[in-house]
Amino acid sequence: MRSVRARAALGATVVVAVALIGAGLAVLLVLRANLTDQAGLQAEVVAREVAGQLALDVPYDQLETHDEEDHPVQVTDEDGRVVAVSKDLQAISGTGTDQVTPAPSPPAGKSGGDGDGDGSDDDASDDYGAHSAPGRGEVDSGDTDFDNGTATVDGDTADYRFASVQATTSAGVTLTINAGAPLAAEQEAVSTVLGAMLIGLPVLLLVVAGVTWLVTRRALRPVEGIRREMAAITASEDLSRRVPEPGSRDEIARLARTTNETLTALEASVDRQRRFVADASHELRSPIASLRTQLEVGAAHPELLDVPGAVADTVRLQVLAADLLLLARLDAGERPGRTTLDLGALVHEEVSQRAGDRIPVAVSVPDSGVFEVAGSRGQLARVIGNLLDNAERHARSAVTVSVRGERGGVTVVVTDDGAGVPPDERERIFERFVRLDDARTRDDGGAGLGLAIARDVAVRHGGRLTADAAPEGGARFELWLPGTG
What global pTM score does this model have? Predict the structure, then answer.
C-alpha cells in the first residue's frame, strides 16, 4: 500500500474499530451486569417476601407470591428436601436441587409427644404442613446468594436469576427459599444493543475511512503540487522555478518554503560554479596561449625563444592549478587537520622566505607570547602568504604584519600603505576571481583567488578574515583564529 491516503485511512479505521469494539464490549458488559443485578433484586424481594410468610408460620400450601409465572419459588428444608414450590413449576435448575415435587409431610406423631401414642397432644404443631404454634420465626438478614439457572413454568422454559434466602420458623425449622426473576429483559436488551452495534459499526467505519481519505487527500494536495513542480524542475533543469507555497502555516507550508530556500541556494551554487568554471577557463586561457605562442616561435626560430617568459607562464599556470585544486577540496568539505602550531613562528617562517620581495615586510611578534592554534599548517601558511602577496601587490613603500593574542584566540594583522579598499568593495574582494579595476591594470596581478582562498580556509578553521582601512591609509586585513588554550 504505497498511497499515504490509503495508509492514513486504513490506520484511522483500524484505530476507530478497536476503540469502538472495546467501548461496545464495555457497554454490553455494563448493561448485562446492571440488568442482571435488577433481576437479582427482584428475585431477592420475592424470596424475602416468601421467607417473611414462613417466619410467620404460614402453611406451605398457603404461601402467596406475586406473578408466580415470572417468579418461580422453591422452598427446601435443612435436609435439602423440597417442601413447597410455586404454582405450575415443572422443572428447575441452578438452586441446588432440581426437585419440584414437595416431599410428603411426616405423621404428626413422628415429631415427638408424651409417649401415649394417641397423637392428640400439642406436639402435632410440629407437623411440616402447618405450624400453628404461637410465636414468630425470623428471616436471615445476612448476604443473599445469587445464581443463574432455568425454570419451566406451565410448559415454558426460560433463564432466571435466583436469589437464595433463609428463614427460621417459630418451631426452629430452617428453610431455604429460592426465588427467581426472569432474565428475558436482560437478554433482549443485550441482543438489541449487540444487533445495533453489528449494523452500525461497519457503517461508522466506512464513514471514518471515507472522511479520513477525503481529509488526507485535501491535506496532501499541496504536496502533490510540490512533487509535480519538482519533477518539472528536474526535467527542465530550470533552477529559477519555485514550488507553490500554500497559504496555511502548517508543516506542508514550511516544507514548501524550505524547498524554495533549498532551490535558491542550489541555484546560487550552480551559478557560482558556472562563473567559477568560466573565470577559471578565462584565467587559464591567457598563460596557456602565451606559453603556446612562445613555444611555437621557439620551434620555428630557436634563437627567439623567450625561456624566462615561458618559465614565468608555467609557474603562473602551476600556481593557478594549485589554487583551483585547493578550492575544489574546500568546496568538497575537506576538514582541516588538527595539528597544534605556533602562529607567530609560522609568520616568521613565511616572511623569511620572501627575501626577494619588492617591499620588505616588517614583522611585529612579541617574543614572550605563545600563539598556538589548531589546524592545517599548509593551509594556514597559504592564508598568510596570500595576505602578504596581496599587500605586496598594492603597497607603495611599507608592508607590516603583526601577531597578538586576544579574545580567546590569535589575531594576525597585515597592513600596507597602498590605495586601500573602498568600503563598498570590502566584502566583494573575498569572492572568487574578483579583482578591483586598479589591480587588473598591474602586470603581476593575480587571478583573484588569493583572498577567496584565505577567507574559506579561515572560516573552516573556525575563524574569520575581514578587510578594513589601515591607519597609514592603505588596506588592513585582520585574521582571527581560535586558540588552543
Answer: 0.52
Contact 193, 91 (CB under 8 A): no
Measured CA to CA, the distance from residue 70 to residue 66 in angstroms comes to: 9
Cα–Cα distance for residue pair 233/2, rounded to 1 Å: 24
Exposure on the CB side of residue 386, measured as CA atoms within 13 A = 28
Taking the C-alpha atoms of residue 275 and residue 383, their distance in angstroms, rounded to an integer, is 23
The gap from C-alpha 352 to its chain's centroid, in whole angstroms, comes to 60
Q: Say yes or no: domain 339-482 is CATH 3.30.565.10.
A: yes
Q: Which of 25, 83, 33, 89 is nearest to 59 (CA)?
A: 83
Distances (CA, A) of 321 to 277, 325, 328, 437, 485: 13, 6, 10, 24, 36
Given this model, what pLDDT does residue 287 score? 79
| Cell numbers standing for residue 345 | 613562528
What one-character-per-residue DSSP string does 328-345 give? HHHHTTPPPP-EEEEHHH
- What does residue 38 show for φ and ψ, rounded to 5 degrees? -65, -40
Please say whether the beta carbons of 413 and 468 come within 8 A: no
Question: What does the domain layout of the chain look like in residue ranges?
Answer: 1-107+127-236, 251-331, 339-482
Q: How many angstroms separate the Cα of 18 from the Cα of each of 81, 150, 205, 213?
A: 51, 35, 10, 19
Confidence at 1, pLDDT banded by 50, 70, 90: low
pLDDT in tens, 231-259: 998 898 888 898 888 887 888 888 999 99
Helix, strand, or coil (residue 474): coil
Instruction: Name the 3-class secondary structure at 146.
Output: strand
Topology alike, domains 251-331 and 339-482? no
pLDDT tens digits, one per residue of 25-83: 999 999 999 999 999 999 999 999 999 998 898 888 888 876 666 789 999 998 889 99
- DSSP for 207-222, written as a single string: HHHHHHHHHHHHHHHH
CA distances in angstroms from 199 to 92, 186, 204, 214, listed in the order given: 36, 20, 9, 24
Q: Which of the following CATH numbers is that of domain 251-331: 3.40.50, 1.20.1070, 1.10.287, 3.40.1090? A: 1.10.287
What is the rounded CA–CA span in Å between residue 472 and residue 395?
11
